[in-house]
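Figure S7 source data.
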Amino acid sequence: MAYNLLKGKKGIIFGALDEKSIAWRTALRCHEEGAQLVLTNAPVALRMGEINKLAEAVNAPVVGADVTNMDDLKKLFEEATKHFGGKVDFILHSIGMSLNVRKNKHYTEIDYGFNQKTLDISAMSLHRVLRTAWEMDAISDWGSVVALTYIAAQRVFPDYNEMADAKALLEGVARNFGYHYGVKKKVRINTVSQSPTKTTAGSGVKGFDGFVSYAEKMSPLGNASADQCADYCVTLFSDLTKMVTMQNLFHDGGFSFTGVTQAVIEQMEK
Ligand code: NAI
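Tokens for the predicted NAI complex:
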């Protein structure tokens, strides 16, 4: 059901790789709610061609940008503001990538060169995006920025590897830039901490299926889906959440505050 929550709003969506991507689901929901969109992803991801299907469905241009490249980001904001004929009202940062996980490096043996790249792509990229927008004054007053994160930033999930540190850094950037952008332009910046979700990035985590079923059993409401995450992001982009900023918001069916559940106790008693 659509509520016209984003009527007249203009947004940039980073990170739609295929139809399972949280960014893909969010783009569809934002479109349903009346937003105009620009889609972006790394040039290598665009070569897959999948994103063109989404672009057609939501009637949006696709602009390639490697999120670690400041020139790419500048061009992206130039093209987006030109396309919209004005500033951007909301941004979804839905980007994650771990080189050490890809190369099967254990947390205790990470390659620091890969690690720098991981932190840049997965966390400092939020700073890069915000800084580019800040310098170009490209986000409207009371605009909203959301980045996706995971609870491994607060608690240990051993196989989440260096991405746990990347998420902690990402959440720090959201808080700190949130302060400055809030003071300057009333722009709000939050992170959404999502349940494990079966996507390309998610499935990269070792033992992911076990991860998903454990979280399902440990969440009073069960795991939140990508579509439900998209719904939540829509509310954060809308005018109904104007005073929410610098928060890490758990969207996980209650997982984050549950000590144990009956289902897990029963499993342990077997
Ligand atoms: P996904 O694999 O569909 O999306 C990750 C995106 O990052 C891809 O579109 C990829 O092309 C993009 N990307 C990677 N390197 C890039 C670069 N240099 N420049 C620009 N874009 C780049 O997977 P998913 O799950 O939708 O991930 C989206 C976000 O949600 C990530 O931040 C992820 O960590 C987060 N998240 C995912 C969970 C899961 O279980 N799937 C749980 C909690 C958070």
